[in-house]
Specification:
About 35% of the residues lie in helices and about 20% in strands. With about 400 residues, it is an alpha/beta fold. It binds S-adenosylmethionine (SAM).
Length: about 400
């Protein structure tokens, strides 16, 4: 969510300030200098590396180029360092590699967040060759923001907002929905890897669903799985999420894809009230701390959502009901969670695996040999676990 902190700087001999806005939760830099087209990439890199914010007053397109130059400077030494580690040391464990990778990613994000842009309250940028970003910003920040006055945000975040706006306009083609599109909103998990949806299409629906049963979709995001269930003939779905952005996004997608009103959306931490004949859940799959709020759909510290889902499932299953857990095993390949842990959690929650459907994820990075997580990613499998409540003896 938006920060309400303020950022201070000196300009034209005056003290100035504005609202600070960072959707990734970054704090405003303590030291800020004014920067323009005369700033060299090397000087900008030095400033950014020491945590000095650069409030851009030059040409907007030059700021974009400067950001690219900063990214190149960050990425070069990282690659060199990796190469050195590889020849000199005992190979790090997958978990160490993952932790180093995450640390490097957040350091990179912190450095790139030092190039700053000022916006009017109505999301206008008063720079030469600046694009019109009003729609992209109001889509992400919501209406009614303009009255709050000027704000400053990292250029890199603005680029994320613009990218998200394009996805929202264009939508993602979902093969399992007969090629129809899902339009993800900013900050909402975009189902770019459609592989797991095929599992949801293949798994046999529990018969109890067709004698008045309801289905739950826990953590609905864009609403894609709820829509798929309705397309498979499920008459009533209750879909939850705790993120208001996800609920607004799901509402829009579902109104278009399943206009019959079969899906009820509820803001809830995990389960809605009552029981269901089918409960589906695709929780974040990596037990690690998200480095920003928008990473919550992927990273889940201590597997909180996964374990919460497993622990609450049996008491939300109607007789003959099933829970469908969609989960990648990437965490297992990275040494962050073991298969034995997962099975033990299921067992302790009074659940038994009935069947498992697997798919090799279509992953753009699976073939990237320079990716430090390549070995784990190329071995990754996503599964749909069909779970039932254990019989009480
Ligand atoms: C990996 S995304 C999956 C979204 C969607 N089901 C899909 O398959 O595309 C996980 C979703 O769970 C939501 N979520 C995380 N913790 C939750 C909780 N405790 N209760 C409800 N939803 C939660 C997130 O906001 C996110 O939308």
């Amino acid at each position: 969510m938006s920060e309400v902190a303020r950022i201070h700087w000196g300009e034209d001999g005056e003290d100035r300030f504005a609202r600070w806005r960072s959707e990734s939760g970054a704090l405003p830099p303590k030291r800020v200098v004014i920067a323009d087209d005369t700033l060299t990439a090397d000087a900008a890199f030095r400033l950014a590396s020491e945590g000095t914010g650069m409030l851009w007053r030059g040409d907007f397109q030059n700021a974009r180029l400067l950001l690219q130059a900063l990214a190149r400077r960050i990425d070069k030494p990282r690659k060199a360092k990796r190469a050195k580690v590889a020849v000199s040391a005992v190979p790090p464990s997958p978990a160490d590699t993952f932790n180093l990778y995450r640390q490097a990613q957040s350091q990179r994000a912190r450095t790139l967040a030092m190039l700053l842009i000022e916006f009017s309250g109505a999301h206008h940028i008063a720079l030469r060759r600046a694009p019109d970003v009003v729609q992209a910003c109001s889509g992400a920040y919501g209406p009614g923001d303009a009255a709050q006055g000027n704000y400053v945000a990292p250029l890199r975040e603005l680029q994320g907002l613009i990218g998200a706006h394009e996805w929202r306009k264009k939508g993602l083609v979902i093969a399992a929905l007969g090629g129809e599109r899902i339009h993800p909103h900013y900050g909402v998990f975009a189902p770019v890897r459609g592989d797991y949806m095929e599992l949801l299409v293949q798994a046999p629906l529990p018969p109890a669903l067709f004698s008045g049963g309801v289905a739950f979709d826990i953590g609905t995001g864009t609403g894609v799985l709820a829509a798929l269930l309705v397309r498979r003939g499920v008459a009533r779905v209750v879909a939850t999420d705790q993120d208001p952005r996800a609920l607004a996004c799901a509402r829009e997608n579902l109104a278009r894809l399943v206009p019959g009103g079969q899906v009820e959306l509820v803001q809830a931490d995990l389960f809605p009230g009552g029981v269901a004949s089918l409960v589906v859940c695709n929780p974040p799959w990596l037990p690690a701390r998200p480095s920003s709020p928008i990473e919550h759909a992927v990273y889940d510290p201590d597997s909180r959502m996964l374990r919460g889902f497993l622990n609450g499932l049996a008491s939300h299953l109607a007789p003959g009901g099933e829970g469908w857990l969609i989960l990648s095993d990437l965490a297992e390949h990275l040494g962050l969670r073991s298969r034995a842990d997962l099975l033990a959690w299921m067992d302790a929650a009074g659940l038994q695996p009935l069947h498992r459907l697997d798919v090799d994820p279509i992953h753009p990075k699976a073939d990237d040999l320079t990716d430090p997580l390549h070995a784990a990613r190329s071995a990754e499998i996503t599964s749909l676990w069909r779970l039932g409540a254990k019989a009480v003896s």
